[in-house]
Amino acid sequence: MMAAVLKPMTRSSDLSKLASRSLAAVWHPCTQMARAAVVPPLAITRGEGAWLFDEEGRRYFDANSSWWVNLFGHCDARINEAIKQQLDLLPHVMLAGCTHEPAVLLAEKLKALTGDALGHCFFASDGASAVEIALKMSFHSWRNLGQTDKREFVCIRHGYHGETIGALAVTDVAVFRDAYDPLLMRAHVAASPDSRQGPDAQALALADLRRILTERNGHVAALIIEPLVQCAAGMAMHEPSYLRGVRHLCDEFGIHLIADEIAVGCGRSGTFFAFEQGQCGWPDFITLSKGISGGTLPLSLVLTTEAVFQSFWSEDVARGFLHSHSYTGNALACAAANAVLDRFASDAVLEKNLEQAALLAAAFAPLADDPRVEHLRQRGMILAFDLRVESAGERFSERFHLAARERELLIRPIGRTVYLMPPYLIDAATAQFLFDTVLATLDEVCDVA
Ligand SMILES: *Cc1c(COP(=O)(O)O)cnc(C)c1O
After folding, report:
1. Does position 131 have pLDDT exceeding 90, yes or no?
2. Measured in angstroms, how far is the CA atom of residue 370 from the centroid of ligand 1?
3. How far away, in angstroms, is 357 Cα from ligand 1 center?
4. Domain 42-75+349-445 annotated CATH 3.90.1150.10
């Protein structure tokens, strides 16, 4: 039988030219294209600060920082200038056998930000590749040390680490994973510390992790976590003390700890690295991407320790880490990242984020008493709440997204979770605009409590 054909609700004459050309030629990510024919993509022509503008000049506040990558707004003058300068000097050169100032500077700055604990930086171009690199590097490091049995990985329930085959194997989000499950390497999934599960969630999660590490003692290479916020799971948050428990267990069982800071790094959680809030030293690997280039160019990287680096040090080529991507350490992207880090160094970004986070908290506080809402929560510049099942109704996420769009707010709930992860450009008026708009949108799309 042929699959049912969805009939577009939007007549093609209503579609903007760019949107219909897009539907004909661009296969959009994370999208059922049959549904995109019904809810066509918004054709954006330019961005300025926190705002995006469509073909007709209508504007939309970018409440999720264009998939969590933007930090200082669109077309930030200093980041753009850094890219332009680099563009006329050297856009790219291979990083095998050559090196360049932007890559060296960036690695040095990140090393300093970890107090020299993670002093070796391996570059790639997207988040999933950084995760692949960390997994391969961990396994290979143990192998070089003669511990060839350590080749299993542990991840966390509902964790997300990207969608390439290796990264997907340590991802536990059904919608991304299920179709490919037969292709994937088997990983162990430990319980999530998601605070919404109740006051015991962290203790139970750590006990479950201990159970797995005990059962698989000697076989596990690494544990991979998203520190403080499991973002793609729907902004599931936990306390910093969980990080201490995890660091402790990894030490006890002799496995690497990979902190995937692709979403929560770069000041999003309140500190530059989310893991810092655990106050328990450092992980063995940190993956960074998304915010590191401020929402301009694809760049990712893996930071690791002297111990891991040393385990590859040899005359033997095969003991080296032979991974590469064509655009590894792209000079333009590194120049953008250096401009991002310069802003952290000179503009007191983290201090200002504390103020901005407080403004968001104050503006959204009334939602705590809203009978339609549960689990209002925040970590730094991430604020989220869930709609009660009864209040959300069918296709909540899409209806909320479209209704908010009519009010100049670009926001994409994850299931019943509405979240804001805005550029670091929040003042009192903006926080109020966001709250008023979210509330008006809720009033429109939610069944009465
Ligand atoms: C987005 C994300 C990734 C994957 O990054 P891509 O650039 O989309 O491949 C990995 N881990 C986390 C925590 C992420 O949020």
Report:
1. yes
2. 32
3. 23
4. yes
Residue-wise pLDDT for 348-406, tens only, equals: 999 999 999 999 999 999 999 999 999 999 999 999 999 999 899 889 999 999 999 99
| CA 343 to centroid of ligand 1, rounded, Å | 23
- How big is the chain, counted in residues? 449
Helix 77-89, helix 331-346: angle, nearest 10: 140
Residue of the CA atom closest to atom 5 of ligand 1: 127
CA 193 to each of CA 126, 225, 282: distance values in angstroms, whole numbers, following the listed order: 27, 11, 19
The C-alpha atoms of residue 200 and residue 214 are separated, in whole angstroms, by 21
pLDDT at site 14: 61
Question: Do 77-346 and 42-75+349-445 fall under one CATH topology?
Answer: no
Cβ of 261 below 6 Å from ligand 1: no
Taking the CB of residue 326, how many other CB atoms lie within 10 A of it? 8
| pLDDT tens for each residue of 271-290 | 999 999 999 999 999 999 99
Residues 6+ apart with CB under 8 A from 433: 61
Q: Is the dihedral of CA 418, 423, 424, 425 positive or negative?
A: negative
**What was the pLDDT predicted at 381?**
98
Q: Structure tokens of 189?
A: 């999934």
Q: Are 253 and 268 in contact (CB under 8 A)?
A: no
The answer to whether the beta carbons of residues 290 and 336 sit under 8 Å apart is no
Phi, then psi, of 396 in degrees rounded to 5: -55, -50
Residue with the smallest CA separation from ligand 1 atom 8 is 127
Alpha-carbon distance of 419 to 442, in angstroms, equals 13
- The token pair at 448 is 């009465």
Residue 162 CB burial class (10 angstroms; 0-12, 13-18, ≥19): buried
Boundaries of every domain in the chain: 42-75+349-445, 77-346
pLDDT tens digits for range 293-352: 999 999 999 999 999 999 999 999 999 999 999 999 999 999 999 999 999 999 999 999
- What tokens appear for 446 in the block? 């939610």
Architecture of domain 77-346 in CATH? Answer: 3-Layer(aba) Sandwich (3.40)
Sign, Cα dihedral of 116, 297, 275, 343: positive
Structure tokens at 358: 């407080």
Average pLDDT of 68-90?
98
Alpha carbons 174 and 189: distance in angstroms, whole number: 13
